[in-house]
Design brief:
There is one protein chain. By secondary structure, the protein is mainly alpha-helical. The protein folds into two domains: 1-92; 94-118 and 130-185. It is 58% helix and 3% strand. It contains six helices and two strands; from the N terminus they run H-E-H-E-H-H-H-H. It has helices at 5-28, 68-77, 87-91, 95-107, 116-120, 140-217, and strands at residues 48-51, 82-85. Strands 1-2 form a two-stranded antiparallel sheet. Residues 144-178 form a coiled coil. Keywords: Coiled coil.
């Protein structure tokens, strides 16, 4: 049977509500009727949504006003980038978990998740689906959010380092240009001194030749005129 667009939209909306309600029950042990599931719940509802930044737009529209694409996207992201958590989880982030992640990134370059022991010793542990007993710190989406913030900070640090490197490079190029200018001036000065020394040598030689010529044309003092004397 071919469904009209409105019928298809209503069917997918109901399936989305049922998937959300089942997820809330699996994560938190709360039983919420599919028709009462909300994307912007209050603290009194007993649940909240932890969502990665890339998927936040999916929760900004009421389920009743959603589109076919939105319903499908929510179902695809459910349990991965969208998770049900207790309202307290979003109000009071797990600082100790943040510190663990920061320490691991700083000292090992690895990400410390709450189930780090499973990652280290997969043969001795069992991977299981999160249950109602899972603690707030086990929220994968909350961890993603913290990592996204850390990534943004690291990106900012890298950008600052890049700008600082560019500044240092500009200063280096400026000093190299000054050095080249001084070196050229020094070479020009050396060339000028060399020319002046050559000119001075030629002048000295000319003076010496002139003095020698003058000396050769001088009349000796001991020689007198022999012209006859008339009485």
């Amino acid at each position: 049977m071919i469904l009209s667009s409105n019928e298809k939209r209503a069917l997918l909306r109901q399936q989305c509500r049922e998937a959300l309600a089942a997820h809330i029950h699996d994560r938190l042990g709360l039983t919420v009727a599919p028709g009462r599931v909300r994307l912007q719940p209050s603290a009194a509802d007993g649940y909240a949504w932890s969502v990665s930044k890339s998927q936040e737009y999916l929760l900004k529209t009421n389920l009743s006003n959603g589109t076919v694409g939105m319903y499908q996207a929510i179902r695809d992201a459910l349990g991965c980038s969208i998770e049900a958590v207790s309202p307290q989880t979003l109000r009071e982030p797990d600082a100790s978990s943040d510190n663990r992640i920061s320490d691991e990134v700083s000292h090992q370059g690895l990400l410390s998740f709450p189930n780090a022991e499973i990652l280290k010793h997969p043969s001795s542990s069992k991977l299981s689906k999160p249950t109602r007993a899972a603690s707030a710190s086990d929220s994968f989406t909350a961890t993603i959010q913290r990592l996204e913030v850390a990534n943004q900070e690291l990106t900012a640090d890298v950008e600052n380092a890049r700008k600082h490197s560019e500044t240092l490079l500009d200063e280096r190029q400026e000093w190299e240009a000054k050095y080249r200018g001084i070196h050229e001036e020094l070479e020009n000065s050396k060339s000028l001194v060399t020319r002046l020394e050559k000119d001075l040598s030629r002048v000295h030689l000319g003076i010496a030749e002139a003095m020698e010529t003058l000396k050769n044309h001088q009349i000796p003092e001991n020689k007198q005129s022999c012209a006859p004397t008339h009485l």
